[in-house]
Every structure is written in structure tokens, then in C-alpha cells.
Amino acid sequence: MKFTELIDCVPDYKEFFTVEEMDQRSLELAKRYPGKVKVYEAGKSRNGNPIYVLEIGSGKKNALLFGCPHPNEPIGAMMLDFLSEKLASDDVFRDQFDYTWHLIKVIDVDGTKLNEGWFKDSSSIRKYAGNFYRPPGHEQVEWTFPVDYKTLHFHSPLPETEVLMKLIEEKKPEFMYSLHNSGFGGVYYYVSDAVPELHETFSKLPGLFSLPLSLGEPEAPFLEQLEPAIFKLFGMAQEYDYLEKNLGPDKDPANVIKAGTSSDDFASSVADTFSLVCEMPYYYDARVEDMSEADITRKEAQRFNYQRSVENFEFVSEVMK
């Protein structure tokens, strides 16, 4: 099946499913396809909510895909809802892959529940902002994998992270997809290793959905760009080295980081895993595609952004008293 044929099968979703709806749909899928789909509770969240894994197929290789590693990013959960249905219902589609699929629609269950206030009306940026929740780094599933690097020693994985650690250690996935998305901007990718034969395809895919590529600077200054909008995945060691170089001799990078490493970094330590991350936005603004020279310098833009951040922090701090 060609990719364009596959995307034609995706329902025209009008809203994001809640965690409860996702769980119910997973349980119902297993009931409808008892010989093809297995669903089980792999662990519990910090608040005691179940974390369900869908296991589909019987291939020799393992694929691990998980949605909502950041709880404000449910696009991937919706993709997994479709993919699980497609894998279960279409034998020809499923059998063309020599994979057993391990799918977790929502890994940060508690955090995702805190975002549900905007799930049924994501067209409203005001509602999105008013119901937005994203935890600090040391409370994020994606960034609480254990790491020992120079002065950085993090060994406090969240219960949700431990679920992923166990699956990675047991299944040793050949392919892992941590499903992220962004709020604004364009589309960009992370891969654990360069795969030149995929880069051209990655560059063309967003155009099928009238989405631009993100052609600005990367999220972090130390990232390795493989192609425009395609970057090499990184772990906390790379961030540590960058901070060590730029903070100065009297400051310990570990005191700034205060978190662990990534799922890809952990997987690379226990398996030969190829990891993919794709970032795509909820909201579009034509200025994202404007490559003309701005009327301010980058330094001025950075100063303006910093001042706005300070003002926003002061406002939120006052409101939260």
C-alpha cells in the first residue's frame, strides 16, 4: 500500500479523544479482534491510572510507538488510534511488515488528562492556552531516563518512564517512534541515524497536507542538522557538553539540567534501535514560510523574546500566588 493510499483511510477527526476514550477504544479493539490484538496493563501512572499497551501482529522484529510523551502533544495518540485499527482490521497491510507492534496511545496519562480542557475545541488558541499543561523537564516521561555523565547522575525515572524502560529492555525494538508535536511553526524531524534514502521523502511529506517545513534554527544550538528540517537525535550528554563549554568554569551543568536523558539515548544503550521523532504544528501562520530578511536583527529579536518571557513569568507568578 502506498502512503497516499494509507492517508486516505485516516478518518476526518474533528476533536482529540480523552484518555478515557482512548482506553475504551483500545479495550474494544481487542474484543473485536481477539486473535490479532492483545491489550494489557503495563503499569500505572503516578496517580494510579492504568497504562495500556496494544500488541498487534507476530513479526520477528519489534516496533514500539508511544503517544503523549509530552502531555500537551496528543496528535500522535490519534495517529496510534488509527494505526491500531488499521493493523487489526487489514491482514494484507499488517502482514507486509515483519513486525510485532507495541503501541501505547498515552504514556503520560496524568498530564494528558490535565490538557483535556482544550481537546474538544482545539481551534481556539485561547482555550488551548487556558487549558495547557506541560511539566518541567524532571517530570517529563521523555526526559527522565537514567543517565550518568560526568557530574550528571539521574536515577529517578517516573513510573511511566519505567514502563517504557521495561518494554525497551524486554522487546529491544528495531524501530521506536516517540510521538511528539509542536504548537506552532513548521514540520521537522529527528532520527537516530542518517538515512539519506528517507530524507527526500521526509521533506516532501508535509506538502501533502499543506504544511511548511521548519527552516529556521533548531531547538537547541548544539543539534546536528542532516538536511533542512532533519536533525540527529540527541541525549543529555550533548546538552551537558554545550553547557559546560558556555556556562563558564564555575558553573556545573548538572545543576542546570536537573533531568535525565531521552528514550532514544536509553534505547541505544540496550538495543540496536532506530528512533524517529516528527514535530508538526497545531496552528499555521503564513509568516512561517516567509524567508525574506526581517526588519530587526536576531539580537533584537532575542532581547524582545527574553523580555516577553520575563513579563509572562511575572504575570503567571502573580496569578498563581
Automatic annotation (TrEMBL):
<protein>
    <submittedName>
        <fullName>Peptidase M14</fullName>
    </submittedName>
</protein>
<dbReference type="GO" id="GO:0008270">
    <property type="term" value="F:zinc ion binding"/>
</dbReference>
<dbReference type="GO" id="GO:0004181">
    <property type="term" value="F:metallocarboxypeptidase activity"/>
</dbReference>
<feature type="domain" description="Peptidase M14">
    <location>
        <begin position="16"/>
        <end position="302"/>
    </location>
</feature>
<dbReference type="GO" id="GO:0006508">
    <property type="term" value="P:proteolysis"/>
</dbReference>
<dbReference type="InterPro" id="IPR000834">
    <property type="entry name" value="Peptidase_M14"/>
</dbReference>
<dbReference type="Pfam" id="PF00246">
    <property type="entry name" value="Peptidase_M14"/>
</dbReference>
